[in-house]
User: What shape does this take?
Amino acid sequence: MVRAAVLPAVGAPLRIAEIELPEPGPGQVRVRLAAAGVCHSDLSLSDGTLRQPVPAVLGHEGAGTVTAVGEGVDRVAPGDRVVLNWAPSCGTCHFCGLGEPWLCAASGAAATTPYARLAHGGDELYPGLGTAVFAEETVVAADAALPLPEGVPLTEAALLGCAVLTGYGAVHHSARVRPGESVAVHGIGGVGLAALQAARIAGADTIVAVDVSPEKEPLARAAGATEFVLADDTTAKRVRELTDGHGADVALECAGRADAIRTAWSATRRGGRTTVVGIGGREQQVTFTALELFYFGRTLSGCVYGNSDPAKDLPVIAEHVRAGRFDLSAMVTGRIGLDGIPEAFAAMTAGRGGRSLVVFPGA
Assistant: This one.
């Protein structure tokens, strides 16, 4: 039996319950979690913005230690420290063949397959985004457990599983920020903080952080922001003023809101790049005129999981961590237990803090 935060139904409160995990089957591994980050995507799964079969154990950003492996697993062994990859690629679908593993057609299959059940023969449970890390232990496919490079603290390594790969990848893979460029990051949560650090690593000159909360300014500046702008009706104008009147070369929208996307677009210079990183709902509509699309010559693109290949990117990011260029601990503004997740959801909704980290006993 292990303890987990269970979502009994879409829109229902999480409840702490004991669950029964099976032994890992062929191609599977069992992992004892050290920590799990609370991501906005977990909130979106709980309220129905993103689809997730229920009842479910949410959580997809985690790191821990392998305790058992199933038949045929040779890439990791008991005792290995791993980061969980919530979107492992199959390597054979159309998108994988194009070298775009972040768009893998099969990456979401695990989330729709029951993996455990409530204690004492209770209901079957589904794993949130295939990983279910809001629990003391989980069972995942072996290709979802990536070896953690040496020199990275296991607890903070949980952030590598989503926020860091997404923010780092958005800067280096999607927007392809170049040295000397100006960057505006809209939305300073976990992903936004990672994007600010990545922009600094990429050599960006002016780095503008934009958020609705003035309390985010110290966090943003510590992550690398050279300027901070409070989000309001004058945001785009303020960003242009801070970038010699032109607008940012690159704008990254990390909030997943229509108004923030529109503002990021308007704050981007002619010929610049606007990258949408945040996940918005279907009801969030963004409008552009045909004339402005022609006149400004900007590029607007979506970004899934930072357009990252986790197996290749983790060692690169780990080297930045070891060298002190990327500070994982600076992203964490709360260390909580499983029962603190609802408050972490509330804090995200209210725009407070950076990343909340569930830290498990013994970590």
